[in-house]
Amino acid sequence: MTLPIYVQGAWFAGALLFILGLKGMSSPATARRGIVWAGYGMLIAIAGTFLVPGLKNLALIVLALGLGGAAAWISGQKVKMTDMPQMVAIYNGMGGGAAAAIAAVEFARGDTHSTVVTTLAVLGALIGAVSFTGSCVAWAKLQGVLKKAIRLPAQNAVNVILALNAIGLGIAVIVMAPAQPELIYFFFIVALLLGLIVTLPIGGADMPVVISLFNAFTGLAVGFEGYVLGNPALIIAGIVVGAAGTLLTQLMAKAMNRPISNILFTPMVASGGGEAIEGTMKELSALDAAALMRYAGKVIIVPGYGMAVAHAQHKVWEMTSILEEAGVEVKFAIHPVAGRMPGHMNVLLAEAGVPYDKIFDLDEINGEFGQADVALIIGANDVVNPSARTDKSSPIYGMPILNADQAQNVIVIKRGKGTGYSGVENALFYTDNCRMLYGDAQPMAGEIIQHLKTMG
């Protein structure tokens, strides 16, 4: 059926706004505007769908939009910044599940399609189903519902067997189209189980990459199902999201120096913990930390997930403002996998009002640590561990890190003496130029602020 020009025009306009929105999201300075553009694009695309001649089940469509919109509005208003990664994970999973559901409806209708269309429907269903259950596991881990990685005996063999069965059933659905309901049921059960089993053993250290990977999966699934439905808005949006997610996944994997295949099939574990670390952890007081930074020429702050948990970003920015008023140069250094999702630290700092020109990524800032008087690490661990450069037996060996250990003085605000996500002891904490300030980041930053205010 040839759709009216006004429907096609609405979908094209929506797709164009999706692209502009994604472009805007590439920079913190334009991210908010990009989100608004993409939102308008979605609104126009939905409005265009209601104009399709002969559209059925209008009441159900309106009900679904109402329920989904209300749930998104309420959860979006209530979610804490520390819970944003799991919110992104579950919303991404819903997108993959929706793509799989589109394919399921098309299969259930029993209509005859070309082999190309049926193949794309099967691919979208498989990828979307894997993304759905995998994202649900990611949400459960980040939310604390699932507190540890679960690895089956012969895990990789199980993964391969499930993947081969899913592919085989998918091929059978294509060849036998329109397929029998039992075959379709088995196909979806295996596909959903595959996403579950593959994701269960993946630990927290790899979770940011996994979220990005499933985001790419969802985009591809949506693009494939858009072709099945003949909807250009879905095709363009899916392809753009899939491409962006793929590029981000590659960037994140590179930042960890771990191939994506290792992340999925060889989870990071602290086997043996690497070489023995000499020295002891040395503590300092909030007063000493304040004095070191107040009379420094340059301070580089490295935020991590500990800052997010403590909701300390506003206190950290207040501390930064006081230091700058005293003539201290302050910069923020962000590792690509800091926190629990891509850009997590950037979002937190932006929320606190930190100007974008003070925030630098690893490649931009790493050469400056040698000229810094103080590197202040707030709740970060693995991303500043020098063992990644020197200890070939360490699970994180080869991962690019922030060179915080090269600063003249290193101050680490940390809740306790535990290890990071990787389970590897941090050699930085035992070096001669490092001092530990134990406690939650927010009250510790508050104490430092009070001492700074008394210093001339």
Instruction: Give the proportion of residues in helices.
Output: 55-70%
Structural class: alpha/beta
- Output the helix-strand order: HHHHHHHHHHHEHHEHEHEHEEH
What Rg do the Cα atoms give? 25 Å
Return the average pLDDT rounded to an integer: 86
What count of domains describes the coordinates?
3
Estimate the global geometry from the Cα principal axes: globular
Largest sheet: 6 strands, parallel
Q: Span between N and C termini?
A: 77 Å
Order of the strands making up the biggest sheet: 3-2-1-4-5-6
Which regions have little confidence, pLDDT < 50, spanning 5+ residues?
none
Number of strands: 6
- Which percent range describes the beta-strand content? 5-15%
Q: List the total number of helices.
A: 17
Provide a descriptive summary of the structure in words.
By secondary structure, this protein is of the alpha/beta class. The protein has 17 helices and six strands. It has helices at residues 5-24, 31-50, 58-78, 84-109, 115-143, 155-175, 181-199, 207-229, 232-256, 260-265, 286-294, 305-309, 313-325, 344-352, 362-365, 387-390, 441-454; strands at 298-303, 329-334, 359-361, 374-378, 409-414, 434-438. Helix 1 (5-24) packs antiparallel against helix 2 (31-50) and helix 6 packs antiparallel against helix 7 (181-199). The longest helix is centred in the first third of the chain and has 29 residues, at 115-143. The chain is globular and about 80 Å long.
